[in-house]
Specification:
Layout (H helix, E strand, L loop, with lengths): L2 E7 L5 H14 L4 E5 L5 H11 L8 H25 L3 E5 L2 H11 L4 H12 L6 E6 L2 H7 L12 H17 L4 E5 L4 H16 L4
Parallel strand pairs: 1-3, 1-4, 2-3, 4-5
Helix pairs in contact: 1-8, 2-3, 3-5, 4-5, 4-7
Length: 206
């Protein structure tokens, strides 16, 4: 049985930490699992990540940004995610298509329908079985990342408010596909909530 789980959230929400915790828990149960991230996860994706994240250099238009993320995603899905799912593994991905919707759509102001079409093309219509959203006020998350900021973290606060608004709209609209968690909870409590949900997905009878 394969399972595709993605982690989403604004800057500093702790999703990468919780993705690693879930990976270890699944591995302890003997469940074949891989953890990857966006942008990146492949040689091509890692090169694109450098372009997208660096603070200095030429500016990137919102449209170019959209297609750079899509290019990274095409490679990740083809090279890593689909093959792992076909082998019956659990795939955990730190960010996926919903990040593009909120950052390039809600944040940058690109047409949401256009972003959706690009996402569908990039993934071949692959959607997560579960999306875990770690939510916290934008100010709190950015404060956690004050020592090291990339070009997204350096955006003004209104940008991050729009990103959070987009996430909450999507999570509210599809509660069966999203797990919304207060990211200000203790790390152990967050991990417990996540594990309870994932365990039931992997073994529905439990």
């Amino acid at each position: 049985m394969s399972l595709f789980i993605t982690f989403e959230g604004g800057e500093g929400c702790g999703k990468s930490t919780q993705a690693r915790v879930l990976l270890r828990k699944l591995e302890q149960q003997g469940i074949p699992t891989i953890l990857t991230h966006e942008p990146g996860g492949t040689a091509l994706g890692n090169e694109i990540r450098i372009l997208l994240k660096r603070k200095h250099g030429s500016s990137i238009s919102p449209q170019a940004e959209l297609f750079l993320f899509a290019a990274s995603r095409v490679q990740l899905v083809a090279q890593l995610i689909r093959p792992a799912l076909q082998e019956g593994k659990v795939v955990i991905c730190d960010r996926f298509t919903y990040s593009t919707i909120v950052y390039q759509g809600y944040g940058r102001g690109l047409d949401l329908a256009t972003v959706s079409v690009v996402n569908t093309m990039a993934t071949g219509n692959l959607n997560p079985d579960l999306t875990i959203l770690l939510d916290m006020p934008s100010e709190q998350g950015l404060e956690r990342r004050r020592r090291s900021k990339d070009r997204f973290e350096l955006e003004d606060l209104s940008f991050h408010h729009r990103v959070r608004e987009g996430y909450l709209k999507m999570a509210t609209a599809e509660p069966d596909r999203w797990l919304l968690i207060d990211a200000s909870l203790a790390k152990a409590k967050i991990a417990e909530i996540i594990w309870d949900k994932v365990r039931k997905l992997w073994h529905p009878s439990l």
